[in-house]
Amino acid sequence: MNKEQELIRKKSPVNVRNKKASFEFFFVETYTAGIVLTGTEIKSIRLGKASLVDSFCYINNGEIWVKGMNVSPYFYGSYSNHESKRERKLLLNRREISKLEAATKQAGYTIVPTLLFIDQNGRAKVDIALCRGKKEFDKRQTLKEKEDRREMDRAIKRF
Fold first, then answer.
1. CA–CA distance from 158 to each of 144, 145, 151 (Å)?
2. Contact indicator for 89, 35 with CB cutoff of 8 Å
3. Contacts 24+ apart (CB under 8 A), 2-8
């Protein structure tokens, strides 16, 4: 990811992260995908009423779908409101989808959404990552490194 893309994500009014994913998986590759939404869904996302916890992606008939993503119903929506946990289609190039499909056929690999944001054009985008699962000792090592970094930051702030 280059600096311009990183700046867009930081400036975005909406940054819904999947914090659990970085603890559970090693990220091998990341992609940015568009997402197909209805009118009330985008309004809820712009209000920050979305969650990526326990969501995952799968490939079906050459299309990539995200399952388990929660977008709360829009407060002012009436009969045209959406289902909160419906499956949503992601938009990627055919080449990227076939590459992901080949990678997920290997044991231990999966596709997980890591970030939901609004780009500079006002469109909702999802960062997805090809992930490999962590073992229990890897998770302990990650926690230890995080704690060590926190201790070092505290020591630097004291002086």
1. 21, 20, 11
2. yes
3. 5/32, 8/117, 8/119, 8/120
Q: What is the pLDDT of residues 97-119, one digit of tens each?
A: 999 999 999 888 999 999 999 98
Assess whether pLDDT exceeds 70 at residue 5. Answer: no
Q: Which two tokens stand for residue 71?
A: 């977008």
Alpha-helical segments (H) within 25-129? 39-46, 94-104
In Å, what is the CA distance from 6 to each residue of 1, 10, 35, 52, 69?
7, 6, 19, 20, 23
Token output for 104: 């997920």
Q: In the numeric block, which tokens belong to residue 70?
A: 């929660």
Contact 39, 78 (CB under 8 A): no
Residue 126 pLDDT > 80, yes or no?
Answer: yes
Angle, CA 45 vertex, CA 43 and CA 48 arms, to 5°? 120
Cβ proximity of 125 and 35 under 8 Å:
yes
What whole-number distance in Å separates Cα of residue 32 and Cα of residue 117? 10
The pTM score is 0.79
The tokens for 30 are 């990341």
